Q: What sequence folds into this?
């Protein structure tokens, strides 16, 4: 088990699992393509320059992850590693064919381009539920710290946002360059960011359905990775909501700090206004044994996945048996990303109806959008007393 101070000392050669792959696969998978937009490309390069320590930590956590999997314990993803970043200087050259592909399919088209008839049944059901008073919440660690094929991946991300048009979107591992691009395209959402430096969380609110009231950022006093809890009080079709997101401390050696942060999250959930429904979604980096170590969830707070009967198809949000973005040779399946719910003490009650993992399709660049799957949940207000979330 590595000490925290060792997290930034592992070299790329030590941590990279790509040596287990044939040379032709390594070459094809590691082609880097940045956005064709000059402003996005330059800002992304600046983010790389601002985050080298994070990249170093990510490599170490990946090595730690592989070690943990061998012990059938929990592991940490590369994408959730942290302290501030400083310098990946990479010269990127795009072939003409790639440039033509970029110019023929814009970021705007990725977000707005799909017609209703092109959508799947699940997508049509999600947008139909939006119009019928259901609340749709999407939580996703989008791994913007990884700049491999970032142009394709951001377009894929925008396509997913455009498909589902969730009322509330909770993002982790966002960087300023990607934030600027999303804000430029998604003008129908209000953006509330958890920080302005390095990488951070953000809450996105669909303007035509969610009214923003106020927000707050709670600092974790002993974090070594710049993590915090982001809170927004909003009104959804007249229902008062308290929306929260966070990216809890990464790596197995940081379990105690992660649990300290989780306790703080639970405290803020319990102390939120009693007439508000509280929904938390984020990359918790939790292992199941850690929650048991704290004695389980506090009274009045529920795990949405458990409320829905623990559906196997939405259990693992970080799954290297399918997702090879990080080229980790071991098959590791963990439920890092979670949603918690606390019902309002008065007024209409809420219950979850569905939970779906998204981002499971590979893009044409042979990468997934992120090394995490996104979690899309649908909630309904006004359930009968027997179906209500217990307070």
A:
């Amino acid at each position: 088990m590595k000490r925290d101070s060792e997290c930034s000392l592992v070299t790329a050669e030590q941590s990279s699992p790509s040596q287990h792959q044939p040379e032709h696969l390594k070459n094809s998978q590691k082609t880097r393509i940045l956005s064709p937009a000059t402003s996005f490309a330059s800002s992304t390069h600046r983010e790389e320059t601002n985050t080298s320590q994070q990249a170093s930590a990510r490599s170490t956590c990946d090595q730690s992850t592989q070690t943990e999997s061998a012990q059938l314990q929990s592991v940490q993803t590369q994408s959730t590693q942290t302290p501030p970043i400083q310098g990946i200087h990479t010269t990127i050259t795009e072939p003409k064919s790639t440039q033509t592909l970029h110019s023929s399919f814009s970021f705007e088209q990725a977000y707005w381009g799909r017609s209703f008839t092109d959508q799947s049944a699940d997508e049509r059901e999600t947008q139909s539920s939006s119009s019928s008073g259901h609340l749709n919440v999407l939580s996703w660690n989008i791994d913007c710290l990884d700049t491999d094929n970032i142009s394709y991946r951001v377009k894929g991300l925008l396509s997913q946002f455009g498909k589902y048009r969730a009322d509330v979107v909770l993002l982790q591992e966002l960087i300023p360059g990607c934030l600027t691009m999303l804000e430029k395209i998604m003008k129908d959402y209000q953006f509330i960011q958890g920080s302005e430096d390095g990488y951070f969380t953000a809450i996105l609110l669909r303007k035509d359905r969610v009214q923003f009231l106020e927000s707050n950022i709670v600092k974790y006093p002993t974090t070594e990775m710049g993590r915090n809890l982001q809170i927004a009080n909003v009104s959804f079709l007249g229902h008062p909501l308290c929306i929260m997101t966070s990216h809890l401390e990464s790596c197995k050696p940081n379990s105690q700090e992660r649990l300290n942060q989780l306790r703080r999250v639970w405290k803020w959930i319990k102390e939120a206004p009693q007439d508000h429904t509280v929904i938390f979604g984020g990359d918790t980096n939790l292992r199941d044994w850690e929650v048991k170590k704290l004695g389980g969830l506090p009274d009045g707070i529920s795990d949405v996945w458990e409320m829905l009967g623990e559906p196997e198809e939405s259990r693992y949000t970080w799954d290297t048996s399918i997702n090879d973005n990080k080229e980790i040779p071991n098959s590791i399946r963990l439920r890092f990303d979670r949603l918690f719910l606390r019902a309002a003490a008065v007024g209409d009650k809420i219950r979850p109806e569905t939970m779906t993992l998204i981002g499971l399709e590979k893009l044409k660049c042979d990468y997934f959008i992120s090394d995490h799957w996104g979690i899309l949940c649908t909630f309904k207000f006004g359930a009968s007393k027997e179906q209500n979330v217990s307070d």
Observations:
- The longest strand covers residues 210-219.
- The chain has twelve helices and 14 strands.
- The CA atoms of residues 15 and 59 lie 6 Å apart.
